[in-house]
Amino acid sequence: MNERSVKYVEIKRSDNGTQLIYTEQGAFFDGHDLPEHREHGTKFMLDKLGLEMQNE
User: Fold this and answer.
1) How many domains, the chain?
2) Interacting residues of 13 by C-beta distance below 8 A, sequence separation 6+
3) What is the pTM of this model?
């Protein structure tokens, strides 16, 4: 896979608890990595993180 990406994760306090800001910028050259796949994988990862945080 020919991919170049940069991911930033920021976690900070907010009035309602904790805010997570996730930013990903990337360039994908081979056409095999579709945006829908990346969105699904990122949503899955963040949902699992949310479940873990609730169990704390």
Assistant:
1) 1
2) 19
3) 0.61
